[in-house]
């Protein structure tokens, strides 16, 4: 399967959720990439912008989300697991950065709409 085919499949699946933020379904690739590495998420957003999948406003919306939830897996493994934190908080520690990222999408959508940037 080609990358474009996979991006189309992800776009179709996540289109309703990403549409809540005014983003195309393919924008979920940015968030998935950012989950593993901040730079990867930002690079994915830039690539989707350059290829015309995202507008400048949509790419701008995604950058704070990439920073807020970026490298979550790596940080979780290196910090939370190694530090020996109480296991009852592990799921909560994974949820908070993802929640923050989605909250940032709503805030950025509002800010960009005030600035009339799409």
Chart the SSEs and their pairings:
Layout: H1 3-19, H2 28-36, H3 38-50, H4 56-69, H5 72-83, H6 90-114
Helix pairs in contact: 2-3, 2-4, 3-4, 4-6, 5-6
Structural features, described:
The structure is a single chain. The model has no long low-confidence stretch (mean pLDDT 91). The chain contains 6 helices and no strands. The chain is mostly helical. It has helices at 3-19, 28-36, 38-50, 56-69, 72-83, 90-114. Helix 3 packs antiparallel against helix 4 and helix 5 (72-83) packs antiparallel against helix 6 (90-114).
Quick synopsis:
With 118 residues, this protein is an all-alpha fold. It has helices spanning 3-19, 28-36, 38-50, 56-69, 72-83, 90-114.
Low-confidence stretches: none
Question: Largest sheet, described in full?
Answer: none
> How much of the polypeptide forms β-strand, as a percent range?
under 5%
Give the count of helical stretches: 6
**Helices and strands, in N-to-C order?**
HHHHHH
Q: How would you describe the shape?
A: globular
Total beta strand runs: 0
Secondary structural class: mainly alpha
């Amino acid at each position: 399967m080609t990358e474009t085919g996979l991006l189309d499949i992800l776009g179709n699946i996540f289109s309703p959720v990403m549409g809540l933020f005014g983003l195309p379904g393919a924008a979920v690739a940015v968030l998935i990439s950012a989950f593993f590495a901040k730079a990867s998420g930002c690079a994915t957003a830039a690539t989707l912008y350059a290829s015309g999948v995202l507008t400048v406003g949509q790419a701008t919306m995604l950058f704070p989300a990439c920073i807020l939830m970026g490298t979550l897996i790596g940080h979780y493994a290196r910090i939370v697991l190694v530090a020996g934190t109480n296991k009852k908080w592990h799921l909560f520690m994974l949820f908070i950065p993802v929640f923050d990222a989605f909250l940032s999408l709503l805030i950025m959508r509002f800010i960009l709409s005030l600035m009339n940037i799409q």
